[in-house]
Amino acid sequence: MKGNEALAEAAIRAGCRFFFGYPITPQTEVAAYMAKRMPRVGGTYLQAESEVAAINMVLGASSAGKRVMTSSSSPGISLKSEGISYIAGSDLPAVIVNIQRGGPGLGGIQPSQSDYFQATRSTGHGDFHVLVLAPNSVQEMASLTFEAFDLADLYRMPCIILGDGILGQMMEPVTFPESGGRKLPEKDWALTGTGGKRKKNIVNSLYLTPSKLEEMNFKRFERYEIIKKEEQKSESYMTDDADIIIVAYGASARVARNAIEAAREKGIKAGLIRPITLWPFPVDVLKSAAKTAKAFLSVELSMGQMIDDVRLAIDCARPVYLCNRTGGMVMKPQEILKKLEEISGGELQ
Asked: Which among 78, 160, 193, 233 has the fewest CB atoms less than 10 Å away?
């Protein structure tokens, strides 16, 4: 299946019955697939009048305890940022898909990873985080969608699936899991009507008393600390004896693996740590790797954004270099190999 369609089908199989979106390249296939499939499973597909409207519809459906998703690309996610903040401030679960394109502004429609800061740092105003998952194959576009819905429900917060135009448009074989496999709490907070049998629920992000808002923020960040401890996910490749460790996510990690194999043939001990969760960032595995590795190389389709998190994760204990393309350009394995050779030869000291 195509990556966008595999993600959409996985969402339906994970129990998503409400989708609100707006077309924008290169994620339009997600919405198109939902438009065809949702009516057949008793779900609701609605093309909103704007991205702003779509994200607020997500807030409404989630308030009622339903599994709901929206998708967009880069500038469309920017328009959703206020609504994402409202959802986070209301402690509501939701899945938000960003199939990234080049920027800033309208930029271009080619693949990019330049929304890393947006996803991990500035999804909206205020003190909050969102979970961020980064697939690197069509299979993970499906399996991480199941995980996204489960994590969102478990921790009552938005979860972003951060893909790119490559993963959205490419076709690969995919197997759908039966479920996310997590034991989830009842949604006793949902606005389902009381029937006169319970106290009414209120879903709200407005706290006019400063002390109450501070209390809610402190409680939310206590939950975030649990997430940092329990939910860091990454994949390691040839890191046991690596002198240089590449850190790359998504499509960049696929290119990096080819470069590592070529480097090994030249006697350069390179390895890969692929973050699967961008928030929480896999700090623990990177910190451990810094005990033996001599250098790190951040490979990104941006001007260098994740590189800051790599440096923070290892407390700047080792030099961290950057190999990047931007604007919709995708690096070749040879470009990464050249950078590895320069680092290994001491040319970048």
From this structure: 193
Sorted by where each begins, the domain ranges of the chain are 3-190+219-230, 234-344
Q: Which two tokens stand for residue 16?
A: 């998503």
Place of tokens 């080819």: 258
pLDDT tens-digit series, residues 164-175: 999 999 999 999
CB 146 within 8 A of CB 115: no
State in Å, rounded, how far the first CA of the chain is from the last one: 45
User: Whole-angstrom Cα distance, residue 183 to residue 154?
Assistant: 8
Rounded distance, CA 138 to CA 127, Å?
Answer: 33
- Contact present, 158 and 84 (Cβ < 8 Å): yes
* CATH of the domain spanning 3-190+219-230: 3.40.50.970
CA neighbours closer than 13 Å in the CB half-sphere of residue 234: 25
pLDDT in tens, 259-309: 999 999 999 999 999 999 999 999 999 999 999 999 999 999 999 999 999
- Judged on CB neighbours under 10 Å (0-12, 13-18, 19+), 208 is exposed
Two tokens, residue 141: 């576009």
The model's pTM: 0.96
Question: Residue 82 to residues 46, 86, 89, 164: CA-CA distances in angstroms?
Answer: 20, 6, 11, 22
In this structure, what are the phi and psi dihedrals at residue 46, rounded to the nearest 5 degrees?
Answer: -140, 120
> What is the CATH topology of the domain spanning 234-344?
Rossmann fold (3.40.50)
Fold identical between 3-190+219-230 and 234-344? yes
